[in-house]
UniProtKB/TrEMBL annotation:
Tree of life domain: Bacteria
Alphabetical keyword list: Hydrolase
Protein's name in the database: MBL fold metallo-hydrolase
Membrane spanning stretches: none
One Pfam family named in its UniProt record: Lactamase_B_2
GO molecular function: hydrolase activity
Domain Metallo-beta-lactamase: 19-219
Length: 256
């Protein structure tokens, strides 16, 4: 399999001969405001340009949307992607949203979704701690991850916008993925804390799945994601898991 980091959580996953576009945020650099109430909200998003063309990103077999926040599914993605492209979504609410943007080929993921011989399993996540969800649950909403299973491939777990919690722990235990993609930018809400994984969450994943290869994504591309790649790489060395983690730059491909 191949994982190409594009920008933020946007990535191309090649798995069992199929190409998936994950969470497309395709806007030009600095074209929409920072997320209100989050750290560094004075910065405009995205912080960096796309490293490849939108045309190249459109050459896929399907899109996977883990949720529809603006840094995962933006106005340019809605406008530029072919309307007949298959889009996998987490629930009927997101399906309605995607359909209302003109997309005609959507599928809701569940525990036994089959696509071209690949089993896609929707997994739960939580976009912040329990106490953050109590305060901001309506805004943070529902998120999902996806497990990819195929006889000729290693099992892959795309965790999505979640912090470390029992959902992630259960998915690791149940599916024993050999490759785990983690949204690791430590995005911060002012005064409340992190709404995706930070470096300590990544370490927890490594401790729970010590043989898995981790891939860090959702870094250095939106205003509130404060963990740098450099800091995560240094932390992985200090904690002895640098050989278990890839922290690709935008545009870089990790071949597993
Ligand atoms: Zn996000």
């Amino acid at each position: 399999m191949k994982f190409q980091q594009i920008r933020n959580a946007t990535a191309i996953i090649e798995y069992a001969g199929k190409r998936f576009l994950v969470d497309p945020m395709l806007s030009e650099k600095a074209s929409f405001p920072g997320f209100p109430g989050t750290v560094n909200s004075e910065l405009s998003n995205p912080l960096v340009e796309l490293p490849v063309t939108i045309h190249e990103l459109s050459q896929v077999d399907a899109v996977i949307l883990t949720h529809t926040h603006g840094d995962h599914w933006d106005e340019i993605a809605k406008a530029a992607l072919p309307k007949d492209l298959l889009v996998f979504v987490q629930n009927e609410q997101d399906q309605k949203e995607v359909s209302s943007a003109g997309f005609t080929n959507t599928r809701v993921l569940d525990s036994e979704t089959e696509f071209e011989g690949i089993r896609l399993v929707k997994t739960p996540g939580q976009h912040g701690s329990d106490s953050i969800m109590e305060k901001l649950g309506d805004m943070l909403g529902t998120v999902c991850g996806v497990i990819f299973i195929h006889p000729s491939e290693k099992t892959l777990y795309l965790a999505g916008d979640t912090v470390w919690n029992h959902h992630v722990e259960n998915s690791l235990e149940t599916y024993t993925p050999e490759v785990v993609i983690l949204n690791s930018g430590d995005a911060q809400v002012v005064g409340l804390g992190s709404i995706i994984m930070g470096k300590r969450d990544v370490l927890k994943v490594h401790e729970a799945a010590p043989n898995a290869t981790l891939i860090a994504t959702h870094m250095e591309a939106v205003n509130h994601a404060v963990l740098s790649r450099k800091e995560l790489r240094e932390f992985s060395i200090e904690n002895g898991f640098d050989t278990n983690i890839a922290v690709p730059e935008d545009g870089e491909t990790v071949v597993i």
